Amino acid sequence: MRPLYEDNHIIIVYKEVGEIVQGDKTGDKPLSETVKEWIKAKYNKPGNVFLGVVHRLDRPVAGLVIFGRTSKATSRLNKMFRDGDVHKTYWAIVQGCPKEPQAELVSWIVRNEKMNKSFAYDREVPNSKKAILTYKLIGKGDNYSLLEINLKTGRHHQIRCQLSHIGLPIKGDLKYGARRSNPDGGISLISHKVEFVHPVSHKPISVVSPLPDDNLWKALAPK
Question: Dihedral (C-alpha) 25, 162, 173, 81: value to the nearest 10 degrees?
Fold first, then answer.
């Protein structure tokens, strides 16, 4: 857990691969608890520390997570996420190279709860939800490419599912067709940048994530 931005109302941290944002049935310690402990120690706070969870990142994904430090900021951030006023940019290393250097992908996604997996279709099918993202090719190697991705909808495993559907599985993502796993058990997808207007001060906030300490990321990332 690395704090990258902090004020009285919000904190933005870097989530490592394997961390869960909020407690789940695994019983593993969530990132939210780690952040609470960090705030408590830093400010010598007695009693419980308030921390509002306003969005999540899949466990195998690294990158930026925003938390609310006050109930006012948390409720406003929740509304901003619902209204699409928080702009998140993802970077993904995928197997192969896209046919188009940039494109909008439109699919209909069906979530299978038992498998914890989503399936993409080119047309509407029963129980499907429309999923839209845009990608841009920003780095290219012999076997892998680096894509910059912006979501227009927020569906379950959307980036992983839609990229796999067009033959570009994310490196390490066995669930969606990658050839082999990554050494750290994660997938090569990061929440790279967040931009929004501060819910209380109304100042523009822009935070960029560090890249994973990995030679392929360093080789493919724009210099």
Answer: -40
